[in-house]
Amino acid sequence: MLAPRSGLAERAPAHRPHVRSDKRRERRLWHDPSLPSDSLGCTTCRERRLCGGLRTRGAFYDCLQYCCGSAADCDRVCRHNPHYADRVREVETFDLGMVRRQTPVPPPSLPPLVPVVYHRGRRRLPLASDFVALPLYRTFDRRTGDPRYATREDLRRAFGIESKSQVLLTGTDRDAPLERWWGLGEARRRSILRALRAAGVSLVTTPNYSLFVDRPRWDDMHAMKRIAIVHSEFLSEGLPAALHVNGRTDQDFHRWAEYVEARPEITHLAYEFSTGTGRPVRRKQHAAWLSELARSVNRPLHLITRGGCEVLPLLGSSFSGVTLFDTTIFMKTMMRQRAYVSAKGTLTWTRSPTSTREPLDDLFADNQATVEAWLGEHTASTATALGVHV
């Protein structure tokens, strides 16, 4: 199994003793398409056709300057890594077009908000919600790779969900679980997927393999290819899936647009706005890239997001629908906090203590209702202010 990588999509630079990891340095490593030209070393790179080159405000010749120089324990996909050929062999090539095509699998019609539930918690009754999202990585044993749930009843009982609820899975997580999924190997991944289909899972979002701002670009292209491969595996096992289109440059999103356009089996995309892409300036850039991708594909696409409430109206004007996978309802309920909308129209949380053994069913239901109502009003009012139609 590969060593765990740290971080999520276009996150801050990884911590190393000789590098100051701060917001200013992170901003200088962002790809900026408004800059006039690629960095000098990019123009002669043989991977430039796929990569597209980098334009950053920091001192930069080519991406090999982000080589860690520690070949013995390096986890990066880098030409200086002795295991580079093995890492490329994992994905055959960096060309997304080489991924196996699949037959379309009809997805369910999704609502604007789906709560993410991590465990049963202190709830007495099964959760009464039409849709519930669960973490993909809690559906199998992390040591053996064996599926944990064989039937619909097993899965819903374990998480405290009503039998009529449609179960979705979110593949967004920290890098250790993402690498664990890849490290299982294709045969064991497919065994889990068959069990999930038998357990009545309605849709899954692919793992969001990380793209880092301080790694050689081969690492980015390797991550993107892995996303496409596992998405193809989900569909081949009859599971509707949303493709997580991680990218950090305009060329990355152009490649995804070409890939999605050529494959009608791709109906849903996924994205995460909670880490590096969650910073206000970068969030707008990524929302613009996503919107451009959706407009360039000649068919409707549905988007599933983690975070990014501020840009949902913009995204909603480009996608046929947008669904937010919300983790705060569950987390805040477990911390005994109650949601309310302030006089300024912002979603706010306040302490709502309970006795030691008091069930949290009512608090969860109230929080979900409040967040759903706020999200609808927030999206509509922000869209009006921006002059966009949702």
Q: What's the CATH class of the domain at 97-326, please?
A: Alpha Beta
Report strand %.
Answer: 5-15%
Low-pLDDT ranges = 12-21
What integer value in Å does the Rg equal? 21 Å
Oligomeric nature of the chains:
single chain
What is the H/E string? HHHEEHEHHEHEHEHEHEHEEH
The gross shape turns out to be globular
Instruction: Name the CATH homologous superfamily of the domain at 97-326.
Output: Queuine tRNA-ribosyltransferase-like
Report the total helices.
12
- Report how far the terminal alpha carbons are from each other: 44 Å
Structural class: alpha/beta
- For the biggest β-sheet, the strand order reads 1-8-7-6-5-4-3-2
Count of DSSP strands: 10
Considering DSSP H and I runs of 4 or more, what fraction of the residues is helical?
25-40%
Largest sheet, in brief, is:
8 strands, parallel
CATH architecture of the domain at 97-326: Alpha-Beta Barrel
Mean pLDDT: 89
Q: Which fold name corresponds to the CATH topology of the domain at 97-326? A: TIM Barrel
Describe this structure in words.
The protein has 390 residues and is an alpha/beta fold. It has a domain at 97-326: TIM Barrel, CATH 3.20.20.105. The chain has helices at 23-29, 48-51, 84-91, 152-159, 175-183, 186-198, 217-236, 250-261, 280-296, 312-316, 328-334, 361-386; strands at 113-115, 131-135, 166-170, 201-205, 241-244, 268-272, 302-306, 321-326, 337-341, 347-351. The strands form two sheets. An eight-stranded parallel β-sheet has the order 1-8-7-6-5-4-3-2. The chain has a two-stranded antiparallel sheet with strand order 9-10. Helix 8 (250-261) packs parallel to helix 9. The longest helix has 26 residues, at 361-386. The radius of gyration is 21 Å and the shape is globular.
